[in-house]
Design brief:
Elements lengths: L1 H17 L6 E7 L7 H4 L5 E7 L7 E11 L3 E4 L8 E3 L5 E4 L12 E4 L3 H6 L6 E11 L7 E4 L1 E5 L6 E4 L14 E6 L14 E5 L9 H7 L4 E5 L3 E4 L14
Parallel strand pairs: 1-9
Antiparallel strand pairs: 1-2, 2-6, 3-4, 3-5, 3-8, 4-7, 8-10, 11-12, 12-15, 13-14
Length: 253
């Protein structure tokens, strides 16, 4: 009798493994590039799109809850708090589309359950730890609190890039005046080229004129607006007559 029982249990387990559960609701999550480096960026306009499709056509004004899960190499987040009291209503065959603006509460620190690091350590840094992440949303039955959906998550990588290092001109260098004006700036990129597919770095070159020679450069930057701000994609820039004029004998940072 015991041998028959063992064989029956094994066959039953194999049978259930071959037929995965079919859920009445399907969810798909989209994130636009570039990948977000912090939670606050996920909720930015146009960044997040969640499509919820009730495949069961018999559903009518079906109340559900939505649970967010963000899983990374070093930290995992799950929504809770008051997000588990706000119902959405689904009708069979009618897709519900939610954006980052709709779901801002799901990324609020007050509604997050954090594992992998202390809550204080996570909240002190606005950026997510570097690594690969999976962002998914799960639909729960409002009354029973059980999952009723499958989900295709959004996958992304967080890579915090270092700022470039200036090569020319060197710190403290006196540049001979040319007429017309011409100063060549170049820098060494230090970003991760694998941040995401098609990644194109963008640089901002800013100059400040030192109005008082005894002022520290950092103090100048904090207290004055830049006289020029230039955006480019190449790791160099030729400052020429088409740019704001520099004054011979002046110091710039």
């Amino acid at each position: 009798m015991s041998n028959r029982t063992l064989v029956t249990l094994v066959l039953f387990q194999l049978h259930t493994a071959l037929y995965p559960q079919v859920f009445p609701v399907r969810v798909r999550v989209y994130l636009t590039q570039p990948a977000p480096s912090g939670l606050y960026q996920i909720g930015e306009e146009g960044r997040l799109r969640v499509e919820i499709y009730p495949a069961d056509l018999t559903l009518s004004h079906y109340p559900v809850l939505l649970r967010m899960t963000l899983t990374g190499d070093r930290v995992s987040l799950a929504s809770g708090g008051r997000t588990l009291t706000q119902p959405f209503y689904l009708n069979g065959g009618e897709m519900l589309v939610l954006t980052g603006e709709d779901l801002s509460s799901w990324f609020s620190p007050d509604n997050l359950q954090i594992s992998g690091m202390s809550r204080n350590a996570f909240l002190q840094n606005p950026f997510l730890p570097e690594g690969f992440y999976s962002l998914s949303f799960e639909v729960l039955d409002f009354y029973r609190r059980i999952p009723v959906s499958s989900c295709v998550p959004a996958l992304f990588m967080v890579s915090l890039n270092e700022p470039p290092e200036l090569n020319q001109p060197q710190n403290g260098e006196e540049i001979p005046w040319r007429d017309p004006q011409e100063v060549f700036f170049s820098w060494s990129p230090r970003h991760n080229p694998l941040s995401y597919a098609g990644f194109m770095p963008q640089y901002t070159l800013q100059l400040w004129e030192v109005l008082q020679e005894d002022r520290h450069p950092e103090d100048v930057i904090r207290r004055q607006l830049p006289m020029v701000s230039i955006t480019c994609t190449a790791p160099f820039y030729r400052y020429s007559l088409s740019d704001p004029l520099l004054t011979p004998g002046k110091t710039y940072v």
